[in-house]
Write the structure tokens for this entry.
Amino acid sequence: MGAVPPPGDDQTRIRRRRYWTPAVLACLTLIFGVLAVLSPVRADAPVVNWPKAGSAPTSTVLPLSPYRPLDIDATIPCQALNSVDPNGGAALNTHPADGPGMNVTAQSGTARFWVDGQEVLADSLRPSCVYHVRADAGGVRIDRDGVPLLHRADVLPPQVSELSTQAADTGGLAVQLHPDARYESSPTALKTVLLIAHGLSLLALLVLAWRVWRGTGPGMRFPRFGAADAVVLLVSVAWIFLGPSNMDDGWYMMMARNAGENGYMGNFVYMFNVTENPFVLSQYLLQAWGELGGWSLWWMRVVPTVCGLVTWMFLRVLLATLLGRAATLRAVPWALLAAHLVWYLPYGTTLRPEPVIVMCAAAVLVFAEAAVVRQSIGALALATVCAALAVTASPSGVVAAAPLLLCLPWLIRWLREQPWEARVAAVLLAAASATVVIPVGFADATLADVVEATRVHQWYYLSFSWYEEFEHYNTLLNTAGWARRLPVLLTLAVVVVVAIASGRGGMGRDPIRRLTLVSVITTSVALVLIALSPTKWVNHFHSVAAAPTVLLAAVLLRSPLPRRAGLVVTGAGVLLLVGAVSLSFAGDNRWMPFTDAGQRFGEHLNLDPMTNNLEPHIGPLYLRNPLIWVGVAVAAWLWARWRRRHGQVVRVGPDRAVLGAASFGAVLLMLALFVVAPIGQAPGWTVARSGVQAMSGGCGLATDVRVQLPAGRLGPPGAAEVSGDFATTAPPLPTSPWEEPATIWHDERPDGTSTGTGRLATGWYPIAEPAPHVTVPVAGRLDGQVLEVEFATRAGVVTEPLHPELRRSALREWQQLSVEVPAGASALRVIVVDQVTGARTWLAVAEPKLTDDRPVTELTRGKAVLANHINAPLWPCVDQVGIRDGITDTPVVRLTADEGLPPEWLDNISNLEWGGAWVGTTREWVQTRLHAELPGGPPRTPWGNVFVIRYLHPVGQYDLRVPTEIRSSLKRFPTLADNDYPDIARNAGTQQTESDSEAR
């Protein structure tokens, strides 16, 4: 007979089976996840061939982004070099002259090869030969008729924004290059199978973990729908139309929109359009929603609105669970309502990642609390999944992990009490739960992609270490308006007040007091964790909103001070709260961009903060004045004292009075300001009005903006009167400001010193067919000059000055300036006097045309349009350009914001030091700024700009093929994270010289 098993062995086997099953499933999840990350992808490998098959080489624009190709092969016959201007004509350029590209020129019988501004080879030119240039990660190699002449391993492939030639004989001239489209990839069949296997195993693991470790004790409580819930729903829906716009809304929307074009989530504006992986969750949501219903601001705002409502539901469940019977108090949902709206109204409708992070963080709060109350590892796993998802939205999503840290004490105790099988299974479960980042962050990206993109972001963008977190608060106090300051400063003040008073009394049995203390700890941890975020913009504070919302609700329900706090502690607490509220209301009531029109307080047309005060006030009483809030506290103290003397219950003390007045007052003030603003701006354009129009087919700004377009006809002019350096020789700008060639006068000297001066009086142009306006294109140094139009009328000559936009540098663009034609005018002429001397002070004027204001849609219809990253969501109907196959599109119309913002903000796409993704494109275009208006309603700050774009060369004169290849997840490409890559030092010096001369 066999041996009898000792008692308890059956239970041991059952227990081991119980824990080994989730352990094995967790191991499978981890294995599938790691293999998915390491599995290859199917990557695009675009190839450009120039010239087009069967065609002669034609100069063309080819703006690469990133700027340098992975490799380039150029064939330059000596016949081409012999047919160019012998004084330095170019047989091949990949960049405008003197730029960081490749230039192959012939000069005095010598073939000269320039790469990145340095001459790498000079070779005696022969009557018949063929040069071959190859540049790749191994450097630059040049041979002649197969004989090696040069190998420079230290020279990068040249930047490419054009392929152009000045050769008369182009036979045999050819270029083949591979644009850098390293991030354009999709999962292979193997990776897809692994991702599906990982997803299924993770889902099965979470279900099993909930069944095995459900825990014991009370479950989550779900509150009934009430009036406060209805208010949140109504305000949230209304805020889709009324809410403030965010400077970054267009940025994130353009990333999501372009992802559908090139197959990955690229930055689009900065850093060469490198991938945003693994921080892409919110953009994926925007992409899916935009592709479903369009790309208007108001449609896209549905995503953060839903996030806000889900956040609200999670917090309602949390309070109902934590407060128990106290949750039935009438004040509970209203306190949470005020706390929620204090954060949501100024921050919540943004298209940035923060609404997704706050939603995930609220879910973590709920599941972490369930884990603590029920001692449930299954609930803790769900909390871990939500925290990991928050991190895939943005680095600041790490704040969602704060509640998990508070679970560590009981988790450690739980692990000590469990057998080793359970410990192993729980640890593996935690690790496997965190792998939810893989299908989000690595589904269509390789590990090498993510590593390189992270380096690029850290190299080019404004990154700070965790110990520089003071910059975060410095930004808050120096740039944020009152409503964005208030929730942050109020949170900090409450944390300090509770910390000071915590030693005066424990939690006891008061659930609200316990809620306050736990929320303070969670909030404090979140504020510490946000220091890990490498950027320190004000918008990132919104990430921490979940725990502070609960905290603010708790202290609105019950004083953060214990009942017997003492006079000193009470006074200190009240003064801290008064200081936070006063400092909050010291911020301006300015809401840039676009939602400032119609706002109250101060002169919103005055952009000078030194002479304009936009702080909230009621008559002469400014809400920043601490005496107002001290008065609220004193009044509450007197009222409480009176009630105590009469034996009545005191519910509101000085601290809660200040908190309540500031919170509810801020919510009501925000609602009032954003309801009144569009009414006060009527019938002018506002975001709210345009949103209502969008519901019936409106097209945002395009519905209202009008531009000056040619109309009427001018007769042939008389002879122009010129003096000084004015002439009609080759102008400093290579394109006409009109659709057709036009006469251009300028005073740039032939020697290039650009110090010319003089006077121009065009001949009189008879007005053959009248039109309401005349428009004159000008360029160059415009400040300090005389720019006028004279009209011949029956009453005599009428002079109208032209008013150029002086905040923009006009050296590389035309400005079309318009004035009204007086009634009865029969002829007109332009008078220009250049009276400014110094370097680069030339002035150019093109012939005038009669114009009329027309809908901007006449200009944009059927055209490729680049609406910039600030105002893109307000142009939902235009054909927005993109970046694909490592090449930027070539827009012919550009739409930018203005709102008095610094012009360099509007041109972030060409910010070289931050790796502007459109630098190459901007080097090839010449912009003409049209006279554009947003008519109707009271005066407003300048709304924006409309540009027509013309290029130095024709576009699209090359062949593009996009084959695919299987690429290892570990394959690395030459790094972009190096100042030599964009040639920052060389170009920054040029830009600085131009800036200095402009200033002079």
Remarks:
- The chain has 28 helices and 39 strands.
- Residues 1-5, 988-1000 have pLDDT under 50 and may be disordered.
- The longest strand covers residues 773-780.
